[in-house]
Design brief:
Keywords: DNA-binding. InterPro entries: DNA-bd_dom_put_sf, MerR-type_HTH_dom, MerR_fam. By secondary structure, this protein is mostly helical. It folds into 3 domains: about 70 residues, Multidrug-efflux Transporter Regulator, Chain: A, Domain 2, CATH 1.10.1660; about 120 residues, no CATH class; about 110 residues. Helix content is about 70%, strand content about 0%. The protein has 14 helices and 3 strands. Strands 1-3-2 form a 3-stranded antiparallel β-sheet. Helix 6 packs across helix 9 and helix 11 packs across helix 14. The longest helix is centred in the N-terminal third of the chain and has 31 residues. The chain binds a DNA duplex through helix 2.
DNA sequence: CTTCTTACA
DNA sequence: TGTAAGAA
């Protein structure tokens, strides 16, 4: 009794879709098409509901083929939606990246086509490519040095940047600058000399890492407590670092070693410091200057050590 | 007046 | 997908 039936025109009016389209769906088997005596297609209320479902799926971007499979129960709704969602999210990420590229370009004082090209190229360089870039870089600077595998692996791990799916313009710029640094011959050469100085036969990586970690934490705590680098407590931390690092490198904690430390610090706070900063930007760390502050404090404490040393 | 099919843009 | 044309 309550069963209501519609001609194609009626269904078109109440669904707000064209007669043509409904006919097309019927012919494709997406909608049942019972015929009346006069060969008119007739539709039920459940057919109207199905038509609404099809519209919703279509507007979600699901293709007619997938809808067909869903209706033929060869796919579940969850499967269809999951597949569509995966594609959608990929597209969204791609668009976000592109928007970030445009913003990064527009952020420049006077953007040129070369800038856009450059940002675009870099943003499209996959994380895998970047990983390869870092590996080649580490290979190059480790060449000749007796660096152990564990250390090398860790070095690569901590040096590989990761471009987020939804990067800010700053992150695009950081990503681009990092790639440049990795391809910079001078930078590589400097680091290589530095590595060679470290990796002598006497170097004990585990002890060095240990000392560095301990010192970093001690310095960080001291800074938090407002202790100045000249204070006795700071001097103790600095002296301990000098002893421990010298021992880990098979050297004496003398004046020469101290000077070498200063030189090391100058280099570290240069391009290496910039590298760390860029990595921090990519990780979205707001406090990217923290490590720099800690090492600067330690360097000041070292400078305040009584001269001459023993 | 409506729908059907087929063909075309 | 829209539109046209001739038939039912």
């Amino acid at each position: 009794m309550g069963a209501k039936f519609y001609t194609i025109g009626e269904l078109a009016r109440l669904s707000g879709q064209s007669v043509r389209r409904i006919r097309y769906y019927s012919d494709k088997g997406l909608l049942p098409s019972d015929r009346s005596a006069g060969n008119y297609r007739i539709y039920s209320e459940t057919d109207a509901a199905r038509l609404d479902l099809i519209r919703a799926l279509r507007e979600a971007g699901v293709g007619l083929a997938a809808i067909g499979k869903l209706i033929g129960r060869r796919l579940s709704l969850a499967e269809v939606l999951q597949a569509r969602l995966a594609i959608l999210e990929t597209e969204i990420a791609a668009r976000r990246r592109m928007a970030a590229v445009l913003r990064a370009t527009l952020r420049l004082p006077n953007p040129a086509d070369a800038d856009l090209r450059r940002f675009w190229t870099m943003a499209n360089r996959s994380n895998k490519d970047m990983h390869a870039l870092v590996e080649r870089f580490v290979e190059r600077i480790a060449e000749g040095a007796a660096m152990d595998e564990e250390w090398r692996r860790r070095m690569i791990e901590t040096s590989v940047p990761d471009l987020p799916d939804d990067p800010t313009p700053d992150q695009i710029a950081a990503w681009t600058e990092l790639a440049d640094m990795l391809e910079d011959e001078d930078f590589a050469r400097d680091l290589k000399t530095e590595m060679a100085a470290f990796w002598t036969g006497a170097f004990d990586p585990a002890a060095y890492r240990d000392a560095a970690l301990r010192t970093y934490e001690a310095a960080q705590a001291a800074i938090a407590n407002g202790i100045p680098p000249q204070a006795a407590e700071a001097q103790a931390i600095a002296a301990a670092w000098l002893d421990d690092s010298a021992r880990a490198m098979g050297r004496e904690p003398d004046r020469a070693f101290l000077d070498w430390q200063f030189a090391q610090y100058e280099k570290q706070s240069g391009r290496m410091g910039r590298y760390r900063q860029l990595l921090a930007i990519l990780r979205g760390e707001n406090d990217s200057a923290e490590p720099d502050r800690v090492w600067a404090w330690l360097n000041d404490a070292l400078r305040a050590l009584p001269v001459p040393l023993k």
